[in-house]
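Protocol step 4 of 6: structure prediction from sequence.
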Amino acid sequence: MATSAVARETVFALRRQIAKIEGTLPECLQAPAGAPVDAPRNPTADVTPRDLTIVRRGLAVAPPDAFLRTGAEALDTALGGGLPKAALSEIHGAATRDAGAVAGFALSLVSLILKQGPRLPVLWIGTAEIFREAGFPYATGLHRLFGIEPEQLLFSEAPRLLDALWTAEEAARMTALAAVFLEIRGSPQRLDLTATRRLHARAQSAGRPVFLLRQAGEPEPTAAPVRLVLSAAPSAPRQTIAGPLTGSIGRPAFTVSIGKSRIALPGQFILEWNPDERSFEQRRTREGRQEPAANPVPVVSASRRGKDPAPASGAVLAFAAVGSPAAGDQPSPGERAAHRRPRRAG
């Protein structure tokens, strides 16, 4: 009997370890030590808080602090509480032009993480191709729109994808970082299921989120429990006391689609980032339904707190008007000869 109980405990321990490596939610079916086989099983006995995720017939039960809530109630409900904190999450941009929307959404998540937890630095990893194509975030905008101090966002530029993956794996195990972002362009061969399993396992062990940002990449099998597809949405007019300000551009907006989730069905949401409250808000109509995009073409937001537009430019002259030849006059023979002289070396 004792040998059977020890063997059963060993099997359950191996099952939990395999579930962590494969990136699946472990079924906590371990019975209390010394309990008979036919006794009712306590699913939460001898389970650490990190393992307290139970799957029963498609329903997930987890502690409230296991998810990063975006503030958009419909999206958080569809995801079962929000984005998982101790896990790998994917954020996709279908085209290169969506790189700005993906980066803006990622910075919004950084703001939410720093708002809810300790203000530890965040590491953003990418290859030289990524930063050359999409650029770096603007330090002044980080503080004004997201409440992120420039010294809290660290960047690591790797020469190759292999170096970026190694840096992400090593950084994912560190508890001195609030989160790790890995930005990849395209669908490289090295970013396979094995590589994402390692990242997901490191995130679970450290209890910190790891976000995989895909720029112009195709959806592929990964170990991430959640995949969100991002694109820019038209901004609504600014709201005033008298109503919407016609012709104005309001808050940044994102079209968020659930491309993959173990508990949620595919869905699409239009979210607006509130830079004052540091949270997302779902765009809705007066009837309570989600407002469809009137113009699907992304627009560029107008600059805030900038100077007034410059007046229309007039005639611009390179030289003073005094003594200048009239329009249509030909240069003198001396001037013509001077233009034909070769340039001196040095």
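Step 5 (inspection) to follow. Residues 286 and 292 are 13 Å apart (CA to CA).
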